[in-house]
Design a protein that fits this description.
alpha/beta, single chain, 24% strand, 3 helices, 2 domains, 6 strands, Barwin-like endoglucanases
């Protein structure tokens, strides 16, 4: 029994052959013959001896003649919101200038402007969203040190995070801590 090939299968078999442009050109000429109702919907193509299947996108209907490079809007990538594991509140303080260059409890070098913090119990690397309850400003910090060891404070912020929250001038602030996963 003999099998039959479609035009696409034949073009695939003959890819790289000199016959492909002739096949594509003949089928194009048949579909866009003068008087054809579809011929006006398509962009005019100059006769080309090297027209091939890869030029198919040039055969698509032209929708907007005034802006041929019309771009569709791209949907913004939505970031996955971290899940809140626990919420606490209390007083926060900040530390910085006297400790720069020293080692934190997890062994990192303490640097200026970082968004890190010290907490008594949370594991190192834990991300915590800290919100200043007096002005509503918040920042996400990473726990890399132990403390604070003064009074009933719940977190000690590095200078970068304290500056972001507006805690530097007052020294302490009432905050909400949201432990993120």
């Amino acid at each position: 029994m003999r099998g039959t090939f479609s035009l696409g299968a034949l073009a695939l078999l003959l890819s790289g052959s000199a016959m492909v442009p002739a096949i594509a050109e003949s089928s194009l000429a048949a579909s866009l013959a003068p008087g054809s109702s579809r011929a006006s919907d398509y962009e005019a193509l100059p006769p080309s001896p090297d027209l091939a299947i890869r030029d198919f996108d040039r055969l698509l209907p032209v929708k907007d003649q005034s802006n041929p490079t019309l771009q569709l809007p791209i949907a913004p990538q939505l970031e996955a919101q971290p899940r809140v594991v626990s919420v606490t509140s209390g007083q926060a303080s900040w530390y910085g200038p006297g400790f720069y260059g020293g080692r934190t409890a997890n062994g990192e070098v303490f640097r200026q402007g970082t968004f890190t913090a010290a907490h008594r119990h949370l594991p190192f690397g834990t991300k915590v969203r800290v919100t200043n309850l007096s002005n509503g400003r918040s920042a996400v910090v990473r726990i890399n040190d132990r403390g604070p060891f003064h009074g009933h404070r719940v977190i000690d912020l590095a200078h970068g995070a304290a500056n972001e929250l507006g805690v530097v001038s007052s020294g302490i602030a009432r905050v909400k801590l949201e432990v993120l996963q």
